[in-house]
Amino acid sequence: MEVVKIKGVSYFGVRSPKHVLADMKDIKAAGFNAVLHTWSEEDQQYYFGTMKEIVDASADLGLNVYVNPWGVGRVFGGEAYSELTARDHDMCQVALDGKPKVAACPNHPKFREYMHKWIESVCNTKVNTIFWDEPHFYFEKGGLSNWSCLCPVCCDKFKDRFGYDMPAATFDQMQPEQARDVLRFREDSLIDFLKEMTEDVHAHGKRNCVCMLPPWFPAGLDDWSKVARLESVDEVASDPYWEKGATEEWVREKYAETAKKLTDVAKQYGKAVQMWIKAYQIEGGREKDLAIAVEESRAAGIDNIFAWSYRGTETLSWLKSDDPDAVAKAFRDALK
Fold first, then answer.
1. Gap between the Cα atoms of 191 and 210, Å rounded
2. Residue 134's beta-bridge partner residues?
3. Can you list the alpha helix ranges (DSSP code H) found in 204-235?
4. Cα 267-273-276 angle, rounded to 5 deg
5. How far is Cα 268 from Cα 97, in angstroms, rounded to an integer?
6. Which residues are bridge partners to 8 per DSSP?
7. Cis peptide before 149 (omega within 30 of 0)
8. Where does residue 134 fall: left (phi above 0), alpha (psi -120 to 50 degrees), or beta otherwise?
9. Residues 6+ apart with CB under 8 A from 218
10. Which residue in 2, 11, 205, 263 has its CB near the most CB atoms, within 10 A?
11. Where are the alpha helices (DSSP H) in 94-222?
12. Which pLDDT does position 140 carry in this prediction?
């Protein structure tokens, strides 16, 4: 049986169905057969009817539609603002320094309740797959020096499981067994959260794809097999995006490394696999990096490839590529 290659882009920032539909037709005419729409807290609160129209129209065009909880609770990736913790401080993750963060705690019952409402809304459309975008505990660049979460919910859960108080210390100050327990607790908390959410999605008759941050991020999901073995997860993905100034060798090495890790765990548990290509903040003259990333993904046998995002992310100035037209062309050409 021939494997259908999925070629897609993410799309966000426009909430006029007329203009979105024109872009969806452009996406399809460019040879893509899939699109990912973002669904933020703002969309959930103010744009449900509009988002349903956008998602349904995209599906009616024949596009395979993914939807992700963009920036929701700051538990997921994305530039969308979150106000959940501003409305209810009880949901906040608490970092080692004792300060509440702008991110909601994935262990908190109120956040989980909110996410179930989000699932109900999104699944009341023609979406095909819910894309769980980089689920993680709050972190700052530089590592785990100020790790999360030490909120009352997490501390109670940790003590119930391990029989002692959550260590309020940096990892190098903990005993080895304490550090091991804290890391395991963070990871298992995310897995428990994903299990509950993905099972709800399956109950609504939709698929689940979990996109995991690359291994060099201190996100809390280090053992990808724990995600892949969840029966309600249909697809695993990652996005090893490069920083500005990264060498071609770095791009090739990290995509090859990530693609192998993904395909290995996907084969072990019988899951589909997806890879994301960076199409934002691409420096002029470096558009060929997209072809390198696609080449390494394809070499590992990955046939589901998306770019973040549409036309070099030209609508978001902070992420806009130097030459969006060249980036869009480079990705289309790489997929041929």
1. 11
2. none
3. 224-228
4. 145
5. 40
6. 34, 306
7. yes
8. left
9. 139, 143, 144, 147
10. 11
11. 109-122, 152-162, 176-203
12. 76
